[in-house]
Design brief:
Blueprint: E1 2-5, H1 15-19, E2 24-27, E3 31-34, H2 43-52, E4 58-61, E5 67-68
Antiparallel strand pairs: 1-4, 2-3, 4-5
Length: 72
């Protein structure tokens, strides 16, 4: 699984950090950092984090040819 975050769209609400702490982190006041290739064991947390993003800034590439957010 690969993820990408549109950092121009991200507003720092940090919902993803609360739902997938091992993948998403806030550094400083509002700078989001993330692991672009999390383990498949974290898939559910990452999908929940993507779905919870108020601005839909997180995109998941499932590496099986399907792309999209957790809602697709």
């Amino acid at each position: 699984m690969r993820i990408a975050v549109d950092l121009n769209r991200c507003q720092g609400y940090a919902q993803c950090v609360y739902l997938a702490r091992e993948v998403f982190r806030l550094t400083g006041q509002e700078a989001l950092t993330y692991e672009p290739n999390p383990d498949d064991e974290q898939r559910l947390q990452v999908e929940r984090a993507a779905a919870a993003c108020p601005v839909q800034a997180i995109v998941i590439d499932r590496l099986d040819g399907a792309k999209g957010s957790a809602t697709s």
